[in-house]
Amino acid sequence: MRFLSSGESHGKALAGIIDDFPSGVNIDIDFINNELKRRQSGYGRGKRMDIEKDKIEIISGIRHGKTSGSPISFLISNKDWENWKEKMSLEAKQINENDFEESAILNPRPGHADFGGFIKYRLNDIRDVIERSSARETAIRVAAGGFAKILLKAFDIYVYSFVEQIGQIKLNYEIAQNKLDENLFFLAENSDVRCPDEEISNKMKNEINTAIKNKDTIGGKFTLFVKGLPIGLGSYSQWDRRLDAKIAHAIISIPAIKAVEIGNGVLSSSLSGTNFHDEIFYNKKNGFYRKTNNCGGLEGGVTNGEDLIISAYMKPIPTTMTGLKTVNIKTKENEISLKERSDVCAVPAASVVGEAMLAIILCDALQDKFGRDNLSEILENFENYKKYIKNI
Ligand SMILES: Cc1cc2nc3c(=O)[nH]c(=O)nc-3n(C[C@H](O)[C@H](O)[C@H](O)COP(=O)(O)O)c2cc1C
Question: Residue 114: what pLDDT?
Fold first, then answer.
């Protein structure tokens, strides 16, 4: 399974194409729309989220409720387009390559793709960069992730997330000691900041309020965990088949994610080998098992049957209400970057995007091992493999 997206933040619609999704999967569109709603919520979001009420419109790849194995294509409309029709018009305008339009944005925002993108594509207006580099595109990722989650559910595999840190406020828990369970996720679902602890949630909201008051922005950290993965997804045999590498790529591709951690990866650099590594045990009832999960379910780029645990670190939102120092590309004068009412903190939303990206990578890894074409066929192969493991 793979996907591509297209569309501008204030264009008519965003579009997605999912390729290599198996046939025979019943698609619950309400579930996908609810995933889109989850991405749009969270304390600290900007006004844009009040305008957009994302819904998916499926164009192809599904017939009578079931996938056919053909590419799935879909649209998500931008309601805000009504206010941007003129600015985003497709009609030709006469501007020479090195001329700049009167209304063009020419002061790149630090922390965005504005500077590199404007120069790279020889543009006349930074608006072109803003429109495509915007995190609005993550709506397509979440919709594609919705399809992936539906497929994973058929194998009893579930992807969860919760927010662990916003600004200076941190949830205190030890991955190795506290095995992650679904309850953490259900508690997070009921929190405005997707944090499972009510008291910490309130502190996180206060942290966001302080940032709003200071006309500033903040980042944080979220954690993803997956239950039900079989042993043996991914491979150690080539660098680009390692599942840890594929996951890190997918998660760091989310706008504003600056670091990805697998299990207790950060702590690992300061622990000794006897304290860090997860020793192997066996009993008749549970088969092979570990007492700790510092490695986050991945050893040598291969799943080991324990919960998969991935954390992502998000930088503060780059668009602030006071703007940041920059230079006008045309006049070379010092200026202040575009001041826009945008998100103050988007860590809760990013955690939903993280779930989606992880689900997509895991679907692909599952298809790599058990087949790509049809759900029943993949399920048969999966069940046979489970029997093989049981008989070891
Ligand atoms: C869900 C989500 C919402 C975001 N909202 C905003 C926003 O409102 N304003 C903004 O300046 N950046 C926002 N960002 C972050 C920028 O898109 C991102 O920092 C920018 O595209 C540059 O990419 P980079 O930080 O990965 O280098 C958001 C990111 C995510 C994941």
Answer: 97
pLDDT, mean of residues 31-45: 95
- Looking at the CA of residue 111, tell me the nearest atom of ligand 1: 22
298 lines ligand 1 (CB under 6 A): no
Q: Which of 50, 51, 134 to mutate to test the pocket of ligand 1 (most atoms within 8 A of CB)?
A: 134
CA distance 262 to 302: 12
CA distance 40 to 49: 6
Answer whether 254 contacts ligand 1 (Cβ < 6 A): yes
- List, for residues 163-177, the tens digit of each pLDDT value: 999 999 999 876 555
Q: Does CATH place domain 2-390 in 3.30.930.10?
A: no
The answer, as to whether pTM is greater than 0.90, is: yes
